[in-house]
Amino acid sequence: MNSKLISSKLIRGEHSYGQVTDQIAGLVTDRSFNFRWFSAFIFSFLFLMILFGSVTYLLVRGVGIMGINIPVAWGFPIVNFVWWVGIGHAGTFISAILFLLHQEWRTSINRFAEAMTLFAVACAGLMPMIHLGRPWFFYWLLPYPDTMDLWPQFRSPLVWDVFAVSTYLTVSLIFWYIGMIPDLASLRDRSKQRWQQVIFGVMAMGWRGSARHWKRYQTAYLLLAGLATPLVISVHSVVSLDFTAAIVPGWHSTIFPPYFVAGAIFSGFAMVLTLGIPLRHFYKLQDYITLKHLENCAMLLLVTGLIVTYSYLIEDFMAWYGGDPFEKYVIINRAFGKYWPAYWILVACNVVTPQFLWFKKVRTCVPLLFLISIIINIGMWAERYVIVVTSLSRDFLPSAWHNYRGTFWDWAIFTGSIGLFLFLFLLFVRTLPLIAISELRELLHSQNRENEGKK
Amino acid sequence: MIYGLMAEFETPEDLVKAASAAYSFGYRRIEAFSPFPVEELAEAIGFHHDSVALITLIGGTTGGVLAFLMQWYANVIDYPINVAGHPYFSWPAFIPVTFELTVLGAALSAAFGMLALNRLPKPWHPVFNSMEFSRASRDRFFLCIKASDPLFNSPQIQQLLGGYQLLSLKEVKIEE
Fold first, then answer.
1. Does a cis peptide bond (omega within 30 degrees of 0) precede residue B121?
2. Which residues of A touch B70 (CB under 8 A)?
3. Residues A11-20: what's their mean pLDDT?
4. B44: chain A residues, CB-CB within 8 Å
5. B35: nearest CB among A17, A202, A230
6. For an engineered disulfide with A205, which of A297, B93, B119, B120 has Cβ 3.0 to 4.6 Å away?
């Protein structure tokens, strides 16, 4: 008996439940040698080795190999931390907020975006840890009954941050895994080789698609989406409080929490495009990740880009309107001081570049979108560099001023963390279903009903 | 030993119709399987309320209360430090961590509560003995009437299911 083909607005062409299952599961169960994946994997592995090498050297020699010192004690590691956490936000935005808003187009992109979140947050968590003077004591940040009879200082945003980021990582992991269980069952049932059946069988936990199970599953999924929504807003707000709780000029501002959250979603959607465009190309997923999906991401980039631009303007305005000479100096120093290149990169990448997305021609031109997404990634890194470095290097006392520069090891750790991210992402792509298959089937089903309703 | 009678359908609509017919006939030990959640299916077999939300509420509340008490004990009772002249019990500063651990407690109990209520992980189950059943995670819809149902041996069972477009109707055994 032939399976029925169903067409949908959000999926190109006509597909059946069986065919979408086989195609997405086949990407994982087919173990034949894939040269392009393998070369990318080796490439990311080399960068991962840069991270291992430089972190090892860091542990041997101490944090002095990095550019950080007093007054700029934060430097690259915190710039990288904020950048990576921010990237993670788009994954949760797609999987939780767009789910609550019934945005069906999230279906094709939520799985890999959530994976992106996990790996980005993993890279982020590494950064503040290795910039501690003695990284092996990072666990002092956690409340545990220790022999020193000490507790973390719960009035400090830095401690809030530990809780925010670790909760975020845990909840993202749970959300991602729970969402994947029905697909793991599909993989178990599609696998031909014994070892695959065993691995996916264990991971699927015996999921059999029972109606009672589905009902509880849907309740749990909805609740997790509802919980992840305020969580994702809270994480970058807490990150911004690390800055605003200090009285350092350029940091001590009430606009920081919303400004950071918008910036996080902005950079996250840029990364979704940076990863999604090659994925759809190399795995021939144009039917599922359509131009419509890319265009929607581009529109979100434009919206969040405008919010970020507004925040830049308000920062400048408040510095002038507030009349504080230190605040005024920070703004002028950012644009025309020693760090002017970072500032103007920020303006060019985050303010000017997104304006091209007003045009539908740009939003639907895939290579151009890819290019814009990379530019925005760079711009958002520059933004965090400007925030961290310009303020710290020029605070209230000119005798304490000091110029900061990232060293070779700073750059090595940063590029190495990109290697770690790509390495984990490539492993994910090869071993787990990169599109939520059961949700695709559900989408086809609801579309089928709609089509029949019209007849 | 027989576990039950498994009927295979091509569309979710057929499954829902057959499931409600079986339920209204009087079958209670029935289970339906589908490759994606089908809206009316759980109701059709008489499953209306799940307690995942309640478990989540309890988990979230526990997480939040414990977090707040921990911070109060740590920074007020066990090791009070004067920070910028704030009172020791400066509770607004304890809210972010309380919020995070509320979410953590709720999320953990939503996920593990759902798995526990579903009796998962359970890698093996008699329904997997059915050859056709591997398509329950692909494109087929199944209805299983368990042998433990008092009406299982009723002759009407064939007649009841015969009215629908069945792809297969087979007994599922408990042993291999």
1. yes
2. 143
3. 88
4. 211
5. A17
6. B120
User: How many residues are listed for chain B in this entry?
Assistant: 176
**Which domains, and CATH codes, for chain A?**
47-443 (1.20.1630.10)
State whether residue B31 sits within 8 Å of chain A by CB.
yes
Nearest CA in chain B to A20: B138
Judging contacts by C-beta atoms under 8 Å, the chain B residues touching residue A206 are 120-125
**Helix (H) / strand (E) containing A171:** helix A157-190
Q: How far is CA A399 from CA A11, A71, A330, A339, B56, in A?
A: 62, 11, 16, 19, 55
Cα–Cα distance measured from residue B157 to residue A77, given in angstroms and rounded to the nearest whole number? 68
What is the pLDDT at residue A455?
Answer: 60
Q: Is residue B157 within 8 Å of residue B3, measured between CB atoms?
A: no
Instruction: With CB atoms and an 8 Å threshold, state whether A152 touches B108.
Output: no
Integer-rounded Cα radius of gyration of chain A: 23
Angle at A81 between CA A77 and CA A85, to 5 degrees: 170
User: What DSSP assignment string belongs to A292-356?
Assistant: HHHHHHHHHHHHHHHHHHHHHHHHHHHHHHH--HHHHHHHHHHHHSTTHHHHHHHIIIIIIGGGG
Question: A241 — phi, psi (to 5°)?
Answer: -65, -25
Interface contact B148, partner A, CB < 8 A: no
* Long-range residue pairs from B84-89, CB within 8 A, at least 24 positions apart, any chain: B86/A155
User: What residue segments make up the domains of chain B, in order of their start?
Assistant: 2-48+126-173, 52-117
- Which residues contact residue B79 at a Cβ distance below 8 angstroms, ignoring those fewer than 6 apart? A149, A150, A151
DSSP code of A9?
Answer: S
Name the amino acid, one letter, at A249: P
B93 touches chain A (CB under 8 A): yes
Q: Which of B78, B118, B130, B145 to mutate to test the interface with A (most CBs of A within 10 A)?
A: B118
Burial class (CB in 10 A: 0-12, 13-18, 19+), A20: buried
CB contact, 8 Å: B155 with chain A?
Answer: no
State the average pLDDT for chain A: 93
Chain A residues whose CB is inside 8 A of the B60 CB are: 227
Rounded to whole angstroms, how far apart are CA atoms A259 and A267?
A: 12
Q: Which helix (H) or strand (E) holds B3?
A: strand B2-9
Any idea what DSSP says for residue A137?
G
Q: Looking at residues B21-49, what average pLDDT do you find? A: 91
CA count, 13 A, side-chain hemisphere, A164: 28
pTM for the structure as a whole: 0.94
pLDDT in tens, A36-84: 999 999 999 999 999 999 999 999 999 999 999 989 999 999 999 999 9
Q: Which positions in chain B touch A234 (Cβ < 8 Å)?
A: 96, 99-100, 103
pLDDT digits (tens, 9 = 90+) for A78-113: 999 999 999 999 999 999 999 999 998 999 999 999
Residues pairing with B5 in the sheet? B145, B171
DSSP class of B76: I
Q: Which residues in A lie closer than 8 A to residue B7 (C-beta atoms)?
A: none
CATH topology of domain B2-48+126-173: Alpha-Beta Plaits (3.30.70)
Distance to chain B for A201, nearest Cα, Å: 7
Q: How far is B98 from chain A (nearest CA, A)?
A: 9
